[in-house]
Amino acid sequence: MKSIVILISGRGSNMESLLHGAASGSLPVHVAAVISNRPLAKGLETATTMGIPTHVIDHTKFDSREGFDAAVAEVIDSFSPDLVVLAGFMRILSDSFVRRFQGRMINIHPSLLPSFPGLHTHRRALEEGVRVHGCTVHFVTPALDHGPIIVQAVVPVVDGDDEASLAKRVLAQEHQIYPMAVRWFAEGRLRLLDERVELNAVQDGSGVLISPSVH
Ligand code: GAR
Fold first, then answer.
1. Which residues contact ligand 1 via a Cβ below 6 A?
2. pTM of this prediction?
3. Fold annotation for 108-215
């Protein structure tokens, strides 16, 4: 069975969806550890409750990004995971860190990339007046919130939406597509080949999910 390490910074709801999948057997992975850069991340409690080893590497204790990244890489490597899963890990990663895990590190982002990289994605989507919004799972490359796209889920933007209602609708889809992408990787259906995603998915073959229902 493939093993994964999950990196978080806060609430950890995406991490939780992965832990539930692993615990129920629907996600055939061993979660070796959860690592947080914030000592008070709520997700740490959740992971501990679910019996997963946790590690805190507090970025404020490091003088440089490279020093912090090296410490994180050392802890990750101690578990020899097949896949590193960024789940709301809100740190910009150094090029050397990204290269070290290239092809075996994925991220989820709350927008339809390449639209709205960075922060406040839901607010910006509302400001731009887009009619559809969503989330993206992608392999991590040195450019922030870029990288070969694995799967996206699309939700409508409806009249009366505010940041919170839109965030909630998108998050429900994040909890669907992230376990799906991790499962594809675990089953050997997904890999990065020459900067392109090679996906032998069971879904619709395109790797794109359209989720028109409003939750
Ligand atoms: C999620 O919405 C995730 O897509 C986003 O942070 C949130 C974490 O929530 N990630 C990014 O913005 C990365 N650029 P969670 O801690 O409840 O999973």
1. 8, 10-14, 43, 87-88, 108-110, 145, 171, 174
2. 0.95
3. Rossmann fold (3.40.50)
